[in-house]
Amino acid sequence: MKIKEKIKIREIVPFLSLIAVIVFFEIVTNGTLLTLKNMKLIFNQAFVLIIGSVACSFIVAQGDVDFSMGSMVGITAVCAAWVSQVAGGLALPAAMILGAVLGIINGILFVKFKIPSFVVTLSTLMVLRGLTIFIAGGGSVSVPFSLYKYDSFPLKLILCIVVILAATFCFNYTKLGKWSKAIGSGITAAHQSGVPIGKMRLFGYGLSAAMCGLCGFFNMVRAGSAATNTGNFFETDILIALVLGGMPLSGGSTSKIRCAVIGSLTLAILINGMVCWNLNEKVQQGIKGIIFLIAVWLTFDKKNTSLIK
Amino acid sequence: MKKEAILQVNGIYKSFGVVKALKDVSVSFLPGEIHGLIGENGSGKSTLSSIISGIYSCDQGEMILEGKVYKPTSIMDGEKHGICMIVQEMGTIGGITVAANVFAGKEELFSRLGIVNRKAMNRAAQEALDKIGASYIKAENKIDEESFENRKIVEIARAMFNDVKVLIIDETTTALSQKGRELIYQIMNRLKDENKVVIFISHDLDELTEHCNTVTVLRDGVYIKTLYGEEIQPDVMRQLMIGREVQDNYYRDDYEDYRGGEDVITMEDVCTEGGLKHVSFTLKKGEILGIGGLTDSGMHDLGRTVFGLEKCEKGSVYLSSSGEKIQSPQKAIRHKIGYVSKNRDKESILNQSNIMDNICLPSYDKIRQGIYIAPKAERNLAQQESDVLKIKMSSLKQLCGQLSGGNKQKVALAKWLGNDSDILILDCPTRGIDVGVKAAIYKLMDDYRKEGKSILMISEELPELIGMSDRILILKDGMVTKEFKRSRELTESEAIKYMI
């Protein structure tokens, strides 16, 4: 009985914190937060967070992390921008395919060369950022006007819903999700039950990075250009979002897509709210860090598992 | 001629939250006793021994050690009073030498001005090891180089160096091979002759019958009865533990009913890094093939190799019918082979997942429709298999980690039965499991055999091998030394000859 109650509380915390964040900023910004115009802004912020955190849920469920996401967004955005100058229609596929390839390279370094995943993705984070600066020629690459139409609210809303539904389905009702969670719960036992660990890891990193390509594309069309700093700190934002949503970073059976979505919304509102509240940007960073700590402390079951394997 | 008890335990109560682990338990431990403590999983025997050794304190009741009230505050305090415990799990400290382990916490015996005289310590440790008949363990070696078994023996040497009055051995022997067990039995007997007390916890009733002169039975945290001398018999103990009459035929009772058919799996001239040397055998349809030997004989490696978990450096494992090689667990599973590891908690069960997820894990290809895995199909499969195995659980959503050892093992078996496996590789299938579940597993194995399916059973327990197998292969130093056919005449000592 006691255990059950504890689990319930841990499941409710993310919902409560989402509501708390909304109420708090609605009050301190004198109602600016929930105006239609601002909600659209929030959605734009939340859109990439949701896509990114949902996509990396599979690899997180396996008990691994992807620190390279920020640079993945950056490099795919810059490459997509170059491509768009030649052929606008190819920008999105190019971004996603490039992402998938780079993600699979992440996976191969981890699986075949047996380098710990956080080392691999931290390294690619740095390498790809450097490469992005090189490719962008030190400045930014602009995008033809014809692509601006993709920065549309209805399109993004539909895409967002489709991604969430598809991910939820795969996560709960297909082998992809079930195997990912099994790996996070116990890798040896999963292996001995026939789960192809290596392939699942390649899939996880490939998916995460391919969807970074999608985020990169929408980042690019929204800004009208792709710059060397596009996607900076995306990976940390994703981590904060996941934790705020109650996702165990050690993976396993308690992982849920819901966590990624709720956490992304909470973080997007938090960031937007702080801007509306006219907080200094340095202070905003500090607050994000503190909230990350508190979220880990509140949502994570310290006794049974380690946060990161 | 009633002797004064060395240790008297009076009216002990202990609760963990709402669970009452011990209720008013009183036992006397007399000098010269090898006192078996038995009961099903969760009966409170480990709790009682933990209280005696000072790991837990009791809620109520008292203990009298040689006429004085004994109230240990920690396991160290217990040791100071001469009460030592050898636990089930690892009790040594990694990264340091054997000698340093023997004298951990007692370094001042060998130090002068804060500098430890390693030579003197090694010498003394070697003496301690020699004294218990384990001279083959070298005191100056790093503990990590020693096998699990040898580390247990180092623990015993450590315990024996103290002036032991009461030695508690908690289910240690199940993890040991014959050699290690013999050593423990010798030590037990020596303590008995010195009029000390040995408290011996084991699931192996034959072992208890053979070595104990007193046995106390606990059931659901309550003291049931103490048996002396001739009263100690497996049937009697079994009945007291479970509280009802148990069938006599624990193992299968047939000797002529051999149903072996065509070959299903062939292992041909296999060498592995783990120590198999030119091993060849075939497993036939409808038979139980037993694999016996000492822990480090390579028998566990053999099971892993058949399931595709270990690479063959030479030779191969293949399906006899098609010649297709088995090189990965996925391939093995596709060909309806199931494997239950010796290391239940790490390798065969996901403790953080629920029972349903555990049972269905290898069977998703069987129950999916397209890519969709219907929750209903999962529930049906899990319900069906847990009914067959009579898994004791609150619901299919219960976490496996909350189950007892026996029920976890049932889940591990349910996984493979649910996947319609035709071949089961069982590594120590009844390790650390109480008699009730043990009997159920043996019954299941026998039924499985009669259905024309095959079992490769790897076991460190000779009675189980002799009782259940159609054929037994004995492994020694990675090589097959002997094959026995099922027979009434086969004895343990006959089999041991080929193991050592």
Q: Could you walk me through the main structural features you see in this protein, from its secondary elements to its overall organization?
A:
- The complex is a heterodimer of chains A (309) and B (500).
- By secondary structure, chain A is an all-alpha fold.
- Chain A has one domain (2-299): ABC transporter involved in vitamin B12 uptake, BtuC.
- Chain A has helices at 2-28, 36-55, 57-61, 69-86, 91-111, 117-135, 153-173, 175-185, 187-192, 197-223, 234-244, 257-276, 281-299, and strands at residues 140-142, 225-227.
- In chain A, strands 1-2 form a two-stranded antiparallel sheet.
- In chain A, α1 runs parallel beside α12, α4 (69-86) packs parallel to α6 and α5 packs antiparallel against α6.
- The relative contact order of chain A is 0.19.
- Chain B is α/β, with parallel strands linked by helices and 500 residues long.
- Chain B folds into 2 domains: 7-242, Rossmann fold (3-Layer(aba) Sandwich), CATH 3.40.50; 263-496, P-loop containing nucleotide triphosphate hydrolases (Rossmann fold), CATH 3.40.50.
- Helix content of chain B is 33%, strand content 25%.
- Chain B contains 18 helices and 21 strands.
- In chain B, the strands form 5 sheets. Chain B has a 6-stranded mixed beta sheet with strand order 6-9-10-3-11-12, sandwiched between helices. In chain B, strands 17-18-19-15-20-21 form a 6-stranded mixed beta sheet, with helices on both faces.
- In chain B, a hairpin with a 2-residue loop joins β1 (7-16) and β2.
